[in-house]
Amino acid sequence: MSMLRTIKPKNARVKRALKEREPQVVENEKTAIFVRGQSTSDIVRNVMKDLYALKQPHAINFSRKNDIHPFEDTASLEFFSNKNDASLFVTGLHSKKRPHNLVFTRMFDGRVLDMLELGVEGFKGMGDFDSPKSSVGIRPLMVFHSDLFDTHPKYQLIKSFLLDFYNGHALSEIPLIGGIEHVISITAGPLPSDHDENTDKNLPKVHFRVYTVKLLASGSKVPKLQLTEMGPSIDFAVRRVQDADEEMLKMALKRPKIAKSDVESGLGKKKKNIETDSMGDKVGKLHLERQDLSKMQGRKMKGLKIRKERSSAVGAEEMQVDDEE
């Protein structure tokens, strides 16, 4: 039995609303909700404040405490997601067993897709750095320094979560002037020698750093980049993970069908040697072998036939002209 809901539209308005929620070629920016549990710490509140500032303007901050435990009960998250049209959550918690705890959650179709739990073991806020800050709404450049982000399942999930939260959809080109103001650098150390794959204990910390970018003259067209730490500086410990259901993940990764006209105009898979010019006309290239014109057969065409009588008469006229000259 499928876990996903199937809604049949009752009228045209509902049909349009459902169509907007279908997979898009270019998805819109995801909204994140920052919510606190019943018990939090000053460190958790300050970390969430800075993460919220980095996510603005696509972020909603809940100022009140909520009796919420994501790994035990997801009903509250699903309610907040549907009410605010948000698909990302950061939940701040604190307990003796899991101090200074952050739970990152992704939603799909109004339900929890997967969750990631990180513990804050080191923190330095934006206010502690005497440096310029980036503008609101500017997308950061994200860099991941470790092979674990491509090989280890938990670190692959961390990379996926952080890209969803702060990078959005990928861009092919970024203008240097005004296009990049800050860089988020995520680093992880190597696995310890006593690492146990079954328990995943003693995993290396994840170091979250943010730098502002300053362009300097380099004597060429490409300027020199200078990085200045602007904060926050956070050291995360990797804790619990709840993987996505296979069926839900398959639906979440589903891509929409692209119309033939969009494919030909460049939105879909590019066809070899077929382009669309500025006027909207389709232009193609054909590659053929060089044709030998000396072997071309032309006698069968009536217009190309040369009769012997006509050719001999033409030759006699030419001789008479030559004699007169």
Q: What are the defining features of this structure?
A:
Rossmann fold, 12 strands, alpha+beta, 9 helices, 325 residues, disordered C terminus, single chain, two-stranded antiparallel sheet
Topology summary:
Elements: H1 12-20, E1 32-36, H2 42-55, E2 59-65, H3 75-84, E3 88-93, E4 101-108, E5 111-124, E6 141-145, H4 148-151, H5 153-166, H6 176-179, E7 182-188, E8 206-216, E9 224-229, E10 233-242, H7 246-252, H8 260-264, E11 274-276, E12 282-284, H9 308-324
Parallel strand pairs: 1-2, 1-3, 6-7
Antiparallel strand pairs: 3-4, 4-5, 5-10, 7-8, 8-9, 8-10, 11-12
By CATH, the architecture of the domain at 30-191 and 202-245 is named 3-Layer(aba) Sandwich
Count of DSSP strands: 12
Q: In percent, how helical is the residue content?
A: 25-40%
Q: Which class best fits the helix and strand makeup?
A: alpha+beta
Low-confidence region ranges? 321-325
Order of helices and strands: HEHEHEEEEHHHEEEEHHEEH
Number of DSSP helical runs: 9
Estimated share of beta-strand residues: 25-35%
Largest sheet: 10 strands, mixed
Keywords: Nucleus
GO molecular function: rRNA binding
Region (Disordered): 263-325
Protein name: Ribosome production factor 2 homolog
Give an overview of the whole structure.
- With 325 residues, the chain is of the alpha+beta class.
- It has a domain at 30-191 and 202-245: Brix domain (Rossmann fold, 3-Layer(aba) Sandwich).
- The protein is built from nine helices and twelve strands.
- The protein has helices at residues 12-20, 42-55, 75-84, 148-151, 153-166, 176-179, 246-252, 260-264, 308-324, and strands spanning 32-36, 59-65, 88-93, 101-108, 111-124, 141-145, 182-188, 206-216, 224-229, 233-242, 274-276, 282-284.
- Strands 1, 2, 3, 4, 5, 6, 7, 8, 9 and 10 form a ten-stranded mixed beta sheet that branches. Strands 11-12 form a two-stranded antiparallel sheet.
- A hairpin with a 7-residue loop joins strand 3 (88-93) and strand 4 (101-108).
- The longest helix is centred in the C-terminal third of the chain and has 17 residues, at 308-324.
- It is extended.
- Residues 321-325 have low confidence and may be disordered.
